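Forum > Structural Biology > Help requests

Title: Can anyone predict the 3D structure of MMPL family transporter?

Hi all, first post here. I have the sequence for MMPL family transporter but no way to get a structure on my laptop. I'd be grateful if someone could post the structure tokens.
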Amino acid sequence: MGAWSARHRKTAVFGWLLFVVLAAALGSAHGSVRITDAESVPGQVSRAARILDEAGLKSPAGETVLVQSATRTADDPEFRTAVGQVVAAVNGTGRAAEVRSPYDTKAVSADGHSALVTLTLKGDRTEAADQVQPVLDAVAGVQRQHPDLTVVQLGDASSGKWMRDQVGNDFARAEWTAVPLALGILLVAFGALVAAVLPVVLALTAFVAAAGLVALGSGFLHTSGDASSVMLLVGLAVGVDYCLFYLRREREERAAGRDAATALAVAAATSGRAVLVSGVTVVVAMAGMFLTGIATFKAMAFATILVVITAVLGSLTVLPALLSMLGDRVEKGRVPFLAKLRRPDAARTGGRFWNAVLTPVLRRPLAATLLAGAFLLALAAPLLTMHTAKLTFQQQLPAGNALVAASQKIEAAFPGSPAPATVVIKAVDIDSPAMTAAIADLKAKALASGRMHGPVEVTVHADRNVATVDIPLNGTGNDATSNDALRTLREELVPATVLTVPGTEAPVTGDTAGSYDFNRKMGDSMPLVFGFVVALAFLLMLTTFRSPVVAATAVVLNLLSVGAAYGVLTLVFQHGVGASLLGTAGVGAVESWVPLFLFVILFGLSMDYHVFVVSRIKEGHDRGLPTRAAIADGIRSTAGVVTSAAVIMVAVFSVFGSLSMQVMKQMGVGLAVAVLIDATVIRGVLLPSVMTLLGDRNWYLPRWLNWLPDLSHGEPVPPAGADRGLPAQPVGPTEGARHRRAGV
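Reply #1:
Sure, ran it for you. Structure tokens for MMPL family transporter below:
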């Protein structure tokens, strides 16, 4: 493919540009179809959403206004005046469908110093964030009139608006920070402006094209905001890395004295093949998320697969064409002082740092293996205490946020779950005496259970034969107390009351129910996803290198890398160790979808480095170098590009770790830590030490696996000076026999 692109340069370049423009234009014209509540998580929550949708009942966004005084009670005239002004001001906006005074609903705290004005906004919940600003302004106006009182608003729309605006600002900042960071690192790596710009431009165009394809595909596989975020994160990282691998190899061959055509041919046969295998591995890993059955994960998997395929396609087609066009002009815009900092032979020898690391590792491989393994196991140890949960918005938002402060004040004055569980009842005749009695019985049993509390609100839609019963649960909403209350409601109270009426459906939904169903579905699917990804990654490595030993080594090292990342994630975000350095605090849990997401992403991305490094080691081995010499040559010759690629990934992921939302911090830090560990401890210490200990057993292939296809692209031309500095160790008869048996 690379050779064809080099021969048909204009066709490849203009074909790529046409593809990007068409994908973006068609995607924009089609628009994105978003995941709905009815399809988000299989189970009672989605069934409840489907019943309401089929009945044409739109769930309005609810808001609460807290009026509170440290000295006055709700009966005080000034307190009553403030409450009345809130009701009048909100009604005056024309955006509220219903406003209820606490003096009508009895929503006054036990100590009498707090009261809640409840309201619902007009229109659908999905549009509420666009409608809530006038209401927020009205409430703020009452607060200014009564500085001695606390008048604050909280609800679905106000929190949704804040999150939407903040996430938009965060991602705009991330985009404007990550791209210059990647460009700066590439400039240091190449020392030339053109060579540095090329990978960034290709990565961005791949992302634009993939975004258009995701929008087009959302007609049959709905997408989400999380999917777009992940696509940007992964697309920028792998897009730059793939181009970097290819470009560095081509430059290395040119520096070794090869002509332009030969340098491109060698890069295509080596780095091009490594990019293809790495891309396939990432795609396979991401495909594992389809097995969860969760719509958000399916959207993430689809978006990431498309951006990785697009990045691989660009690296294997338009990049060789551009390199063929530019020739040595790719070195234009050289920065003089950067060139002086690099040793001329650094590309082959790995530079001073990696030589200093690798020399003792190869001299004492057993000690290096034990020390590095112990270090990674120590990092992974906190994993044993990991607790996952679907974080509440109080946990998601940064400390000191006004919405969090309002929530804490409401929770202190009115203890209990911040959002009720809702029983959605669909009956043959919702007004029948039997159903009316069953609903009353459900209400009474809920209050008598000791795990739920009032006020219990019943809303009947007689013309739709649907009713909703809102029952506040004890606990914080996602703790064990709330989950126990939810199970009691679902497994005992609902079956014993409303479900005794024939022909009735009564799924239980709400924030707690959504979190519980999501976590349960995640727990059930994780072993299947993990097994799928590990098994297919093993098979891919086995097919690529024709060695079960190399494949098993890759899987074990990747599992160690992921385990260490999990341990750091638990230590920082669950237990709060070092969290203040990231501008956050321990929230007592890791977001429930983050571990699975990190696993599939990291398993795919780690293979980038593994395939690239081991491919180079195998090149040396296939040229006749002894295994130890091939390992030394492979690690040293790839150290620079792996370091550059890792620094770019860590920088991009760290930007996401600096965003406001807790889940973005967890995702960014988890990915950054794992990539850093993988590129240093794993590839620089454990991989060479383990392969050195295994020796020629690395290339062992049982006879019954001789049917495996040989995916090598012929013998690449060895770069000039490839054997410089390596001891001359001719292959003896015994070693040669082992090579033949391995089928290499």
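The radius of gyration is 30 Å. The chain has a mean pLDDT of 83.
Shout if anything looks off.
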